């Protein structure tokens, strides 16, 4: 379903939407072609589904194409993804060859026509080989945390990246020493998507009923994959400290872990830890549960994201958008979003997490203030419309000289 | 003399320079070689962010030295530089360098502190896109009417960018108001230290010169 840019006017303000139209005027009929590796699933596809029609509505021609690849290719790029995140997965020369082969196939079959070609993530990065032949302006948009990448793999990818006119990273921590411009554009959430839109109270109530959660008692929630880096075990331990004196419930909800043996082990561990407590709900949600997740976040008294390592942490953004007090591990993008004691609480330990939960339970007025600040912080900095503005500015920057001040 | 004051505004894209510091010496070394746009960015970016409480430091260097290196005295000295004394980024940079070099001299022989992992200082800069808001004033009352309506970014552009980054000695507002005969108000704006206010407070303060 396509949502009009006008629907965002009451959310981000009329001045901002008018500015988007003004910036769009300066793009002068140039077009942008986004290319990624999947039409559905994952954060990139989710964002492009919304961004592309909105860009067109502003009068800037935007299209979106997807590369083709075999299962073998996507297994390789999945290993790349993990290794760029710093995992120990071995990267072999055979993998590089499979990557090159699929790149060659796509270079033959794909139509590369945008005035600006924005390539998302490593999978289609090799398409840059066409630049010498067709020209155009090329940007490589890296959505993943490459702050500590596998060295061999990064050297391989770097050969492609340096040929681009510019790169885009989500945070300065992810940027690299590169001879090309590195723009910093933080991720965003769509306030009108199923995951974030306003919900009827009756729908929220029905979800609580479905999972036997009591709306009359405080609800502590963490939404995340069952992954050690999200520390679900630490969340349960923090809950247990609080539970000694407070009648609270815990909801740990996350996506499936069928292709991830480590995830399955973590899930089993937390299930065992919560087995003797009916107030601990471990929910393994199927794909496309966005509205349910939305409802669980909205029903919560406090939302946790007690990560030990985190990229940006969009679940924090989502919870703040829903006016919830958020407690987050002091790591990665969570530190960018939570100003400690102002837009949420940053914690470093299980004990600290329990302490902050208790603070929120005991001082709902202060919790309300923090939640309101968090909401404003997201409204000003982390919504889709800001992302749209940034991409248009990248289009302009690529066409102009390298000056630090561009007069439109 | 131009009778029309056109209000401009700006939007920005932040760029990473790829330079990062873990210790004070690394910060100093990068500070010496990084472009002026990066020095400007780290002394001004914070004013543009939406703040819920008054910040202890609006200067990124001072904030990092305090938070991540726990060198509180040095942080206060860096933040204590009177920005209004400078109209050139090069001079501002030299002032920071002088303070840090003195500090290192005083602490000679001591082990340097390291920022914890994940708290490195990343040198960034901004690319600014300046465009007309469409608001124009042809008289002094019109000017103040517009001033109450412009976005904080527009106010920031005319007060901060025009003075230091574009190397004018005063803000755009003072020049035009003086040309229009409102020398008293222009003088008050010129004497104002915008670095001690939030953008909203600054707007109210300037408007008060007209109403008061």
Please describe the structure with a list of short key phrases separated by commas or semicolons:
heterodimer, A: Rossmann fold, Rossmann fold, six-stranded parallel β-sheet, globular, B: 212 residues, alpha+beta, two-stranded antiparallel ribbon
Summarize this structure briefly:
The complex is a heterodimer of chains A (408) and B (212). Chain A has 408 residues and is an alpha/beta fold. Chain A has helices spanning 9-12, 14-25, 43-57, 71-84, 93-109, 131-134, 151-161, 201-210, 232-243, 261-274, 290-299, 314-321, 332-337, 350-362, 364-381, 384-399, and strands spanning 32-36, 62-66, 116-120, 137-141, 166-169, 181-184, 219-223, 249-254, 280-284, 302-305, 326-329, 345-347, 405-407.
In words, what does this structure look like?
The complex is a heterodimer of chains A (408) and B (212). Chain A is 45% helix and 14% strand. Chain A is an alpha/beta fold and 408 residues long. Chain A folds into two domains: 201 residues, Glycogen Phosphorylase B (Rossmann fold, 3-Layer(aba) Sandwich); 181 residues, Rossmann fold (3-Layer(aba) Sandwich). In chain A, the strands form two sheets. In chain A, strands 2-1-3-4-5-6 form a six-stranded parallel sheet, with helices on one face. In chain A, strands 9-8-7-10-11-12 form a six-stranded parallel sheet, with helices on both faces. The longest helix of chain A is centred in the C-terminal third of the chain and has 18 residues. Chain A is globular. The two termini of chain A are 34 Å apart. By secondary structure, chain B is α+β, with helices and mostly antiparallel strands. Chain B has two domains: 81 residues, no CATH class; 115 residues, no CATH class. Chain B has a two-stranded antiparallel ribbon. The relative contact order of chain B is 0.19. Strand 13 of chain A pairs parallel with strand 2 of chain B.
């Amino acid at each position: 379903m396509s949502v009009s840019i006008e629907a965002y006017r009451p959310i981000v303000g009329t001045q901002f939407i008018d500015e988007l139209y003004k910036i769009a005027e300066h793009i002068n009929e140039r077009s942008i072609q986004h290319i990624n590796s999947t039409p559905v699933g994952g954060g990139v596809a989710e964002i492009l589904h919304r961004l592309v029609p909105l860009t067109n509505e502003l009068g800037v021609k935007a299209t979106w194409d997807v590369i083709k690849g075999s299962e073998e290719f996507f297994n390789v790029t999945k290993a790349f993804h993990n290794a760029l995140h710093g995992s120990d997965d071995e990267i072999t020369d055979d993998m590089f060859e499979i990557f090159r082969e699929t790149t060659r196939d796509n270079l033959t079959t794909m139509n590369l026509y945008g005035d600006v070609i924005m390539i998302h993530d490593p999978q289609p990065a090799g398409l840059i080989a066409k630049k010498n032949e067709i020209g155009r302006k090329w940007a490589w948009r890296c959505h993943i945390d490459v702050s500590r990448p596998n060295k061999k793999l990064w050297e391989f990818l770097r050969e492609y990246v340096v040929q681009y006119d510019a790169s885009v990273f989500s945070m300065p921590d992810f940027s690299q020493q590169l001879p090309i411009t590195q723009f910093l554009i933080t991720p965003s959430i769509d306030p009108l998507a199923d995951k974030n839109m306003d919900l009827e109270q009756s729908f929220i109530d029905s979800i609580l009923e479905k999972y036997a959660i009591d709306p009359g008692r405080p609800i502590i929630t963490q939404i995340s994959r069952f992954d050690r880096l999200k520390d679900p075990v630490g969340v349960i331990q923090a809950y247990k400290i609080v539970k000694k004196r407070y009648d609270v419930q815990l909801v740990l909800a996350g996506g499936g872990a069928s292709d991830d043996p480590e995830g399955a082990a973590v899930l089993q561990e937390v299930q065992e830890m919560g087995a003797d407590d009916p107030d601990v709900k471990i929910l393994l949600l199927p794909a496309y549960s966005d509205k349910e997740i939305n409802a669980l976040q909205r029903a919560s008294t406090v939302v946790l994201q007690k990560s030990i390592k985190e990229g940006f942490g969009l679940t924090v953004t989502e919870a703040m958008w829903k006016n919830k007090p958020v407690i987050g591990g002091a790591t990665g993008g969570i530190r960018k979003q939570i100003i400690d004691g102002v837009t949420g609480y940053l914690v470093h330990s299980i004990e600290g997490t329990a302490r902050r939960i208790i603070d929120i339970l005991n001082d709902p007025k202060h919790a309300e203030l923090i939640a309101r600040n968090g909401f404003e912080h997201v409204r000003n900095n982390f919504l889709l419309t800001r992302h749209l503005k940034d991409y248009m500015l990248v289009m302009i920057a690529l066409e102009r000289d390298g000056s630090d001040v561009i007069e439109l | 003399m131009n009778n029309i004051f056109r209000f401009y505004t700006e939007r920005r894209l932040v760029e990473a320079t790829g330079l990062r510091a873990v210790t004070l010496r690394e910060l100093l070394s990068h500070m010496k070689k990084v472009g002026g746009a990066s020095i400007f960015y780290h002394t001004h970016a914070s004013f543009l962010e939406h703040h819920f409480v008054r910040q202890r430091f609006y200067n990124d260097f001072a904030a990092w030295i305090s938070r991540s290196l726990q060198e509180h005295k040095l942080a206060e000295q860096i933040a204590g530089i009177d920005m209004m004394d400078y109209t050139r980024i090069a001079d501002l940079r030299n002032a920071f360098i002088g303070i840090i070099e003195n500090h290192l001299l005083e602490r000679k022989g001591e082990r340097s502190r390291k920022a914890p992992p994940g708290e490195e200082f990343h040198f960034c800069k901004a690319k600014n896109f300046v465009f007309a808001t469409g608001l124009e004033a042809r008289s002094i009352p019109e000017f103040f009417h517009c001033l109450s309506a412009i976005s904080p970014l527009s106010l920031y552009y005319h007060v901060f960018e025009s003075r230091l980054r574009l190397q004018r000695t005063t803000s755009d507002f003072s020049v035009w108001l003086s040309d229009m005969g409102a020398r008293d108000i222009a003088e008050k704006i010129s004497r104002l230290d915008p670095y001690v206010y939030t953008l909203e407070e600054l707007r109210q303060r300037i408007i008060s010169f007209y109403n008061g």
